[in-house]
Each structure stands twice: as C-alpha cells, then as structure tokens.
Amino acid sequence: MTNKNVTNKVFLSTNYRDVLRTLSRDEKRHLMRLTNYHGLLWLLAHLGVIAGMAWANFFYTGLLGWLAIVCQGIALCFLFCSMHEAGHGTAFRSKILNKLVTSFVGLLLFIGPVWFQSFHAAHHRHTNHPALDPELATSKPQTWAQYLFHLTGIMVWVSNLRTLLFNATRTPTDSFISSSSRYHIKKEARLMLLTYTFIFTGGIILAPQYIFKFWLLPLMLGQPFLRLFLLAEHAGCPHDQDMLKNSRTTFTNPVVLFLSWNMPYHTAHHSFPAVPFHQLPRFNQRIAQYAAFKAKGYSTFHLWYTQRLINSKLKS
Fold it and tell me: Rounded to a whole number, what is the largest CA-CA distance in the chain?
C-alpha cells in the first residue's frame, strides 16, 4: 500500500457476525427503529438544495450559472442514495413513503425501482463476487482510460436506458430477478416509458430548453461526482462473505454525508442493512475498528486507486 490514509487488507479474526452478537437486544431494537421524521426532514432538505440550485440556475448566467447547474446536478444524482435507502425500506417507517420516493427518484434517474431492488438485493447477497454480484457485470476500471471513461457516467446512462427498453419489450431474464417480480418489472418499465413520452412530448412543445437545462444537463454534469462516490464503496476490496472485508468505510465531510444519506459508512451498512441511515453513524462507532478497508476522504481513496492503476501499468 502506498498511501497511509487508506487502510487495506487488514485481515482480522473478528467478523461482522461476531460484532452483531455483541449487541444487546435493546441495542439492536434501537438501531433498527424506523421513523418518518428523519427521512422527511432529510428529504425536504435535500430537495431544498436542489430547488435552491435550480433557482440560481434560472437567474444566473456565466460562471455562476454553470456552477449552479453542476451543483444542482450533483444534488439530483445523489438522490440515488435516497432511492437506495427507501429501497431497503429504511428511509421511512411508512411503506407508502418508501414506495413514493423510489418511484419518484427512479423516474428522475431513469432507473426502474422494482428492478433496482432486485439488483441491489443480489449485490448484498453476493457482494464483490465476480460471477454473482450484478454490480460487477461491468468490471471496475483497470486502466487510466477505463477510469476516466467510467467517471463520465456514459455507460450508466446507456445501461439504464437499455435496461428500461429491454424490460418494457421483453420478459426480464436476469438471474437476480425472481419469477414473481418479472411481471411487475415489465409493467414498471412500460409505465416509465409512457410517462417519459408525455414529459418529453409536452416539453418539446412547450419549453424544450427547460427540460434540458433543469433536468438532463444537470444530471449529465452531476453523474461523474456520483461515480467518484460509488467507486469507493467496494473497489479494491476482495470477494469475502465477511462484510467487514468486502466494503469500505470512507470518512468524509458533513456535506457529502448529507447528500449521500450517510452511505460513506458503507461497511456498517453492509454489515447490518436493517439499520436506517440516521443510525449508521452510531453503528459505525461500534464496527469501525474492525473494518478492514477504510479511507480518509474520497480524494485520498482516488489517489490510492489511481496509483494502483499506474503501478499495474508499469508492471505490465
């Protein structure tokens, strides 16, 4: 390892199940307690940031205008983290609220929520398994060119649109989709495409510039920041059934923690997915000392990751 601020491959005898056994029944109950209050407050604040940046996007031009577009895009793309949390059923106590958030954000980001829940459940079951983790259907960047292309997010948009079209026109056949979910995913994709047809038809007729300036362009400019964030969760971690070793905790600032719904505590999240986002900092305190993969910030992680790319290139 070349960077002292990235801790990797610290093989410990304690596994995540051992840590969970140290929690009393009352501690587990408290950690797993769901509320509507935390999720609504967090979501409203997140949407408030997006609205504020959209206001600046509307009223400012030049450098300030472009800065507002990028910041709006970052906040929009990071709504993915609210969809992820609601998909776990832990963003809100109310199942209806969880469903509404996954549906709304999925529509914004071109991701079918029911399909994503099946995809993500397989990711949790088979984290970093080369053959079974659907996140590894596209391998992590192994060269500088792959790394830079990965950060553009182009393949994300291609994959999302291709998945929507495939699920709408054919019966989904992915191994991680249960037979009972196939009809719902197909229906979901068709409803989403129908909704997009209305949105884009109306937008083109009434005000096409607004669709582009306040939705599509911000999403395109914000996606690289989400790619930078998500890459740190598992890249460089081995396939291991122990959640303390297959995920990375990244220590970061309050702004990133807010936008990502505390997902930088990713080792804690994978070790105990039933813990809602607002309790992850507390649970992380119990598990952090056992986590094998930690980084002191995202810039530190990416410096370490790109150094690996350079070193592997030199060796080849």
Answer: 63
Relative to beta strand 294-295, strand 6-7 is antiparallel
Cβ contact 239:128 at 8 Å: yes
pLDDT in tens, 136-194: 988 899 999 999 999 999 999 999 999 999 999 998 989 999 999 999 999 999 999 99
- Distance between the two ends of the chain, CA-based, in angstroms? 18
The Cα 1–Cα 258 span in angstroms is: 30
Please state, as a whole number, how many other Cβ atoms lie within 10 Å of the Cβ of residue 223: 22
Say if residues 254 and 6 touch (Cβ distance below 8 Å): no
Q: Is 295 exposed, middle or buried (0-12, 13-18, 19+ CB in 10 A)?
A: buried
For residue 281, what are its two tokens?
Answer: 């900092």
Q: Under a CB-based contact definition with an 8 Å cutoff, are residues 262 and 11 in contact?
A: no
- Strands 249-250 and 294-295, by their bridges, are parallel
Q: E-assigned strands of 174-274?
A: 249-250
- SS3 category, 265: strand
Q: Distance between CA atoms of 156 and 151, rounded to whole angstroms?
A: 10
Distance CA 119, CA 138 (A): 14
Is residue 181 a contact partner of residue 118, using CB atoms and an 8 Å limit? yes
Q: Read off the tokens for 307.
A: 């150094």
- Check if the beta carbon of residue 143 is closer than 8 Å to that of residue 250: no
- The first and second tokens of residue 276, run together, are 């809602």
Distance between CA 193 and CA 161 in Å, rounded?
10
Predicted TM-score of the model (pTM): 0.93
How far is residue 20's CA from residue 182's CA, in Å, rounded to a whole number?
34
- What are the structure tokens assigned to 104, written together? 């709304």
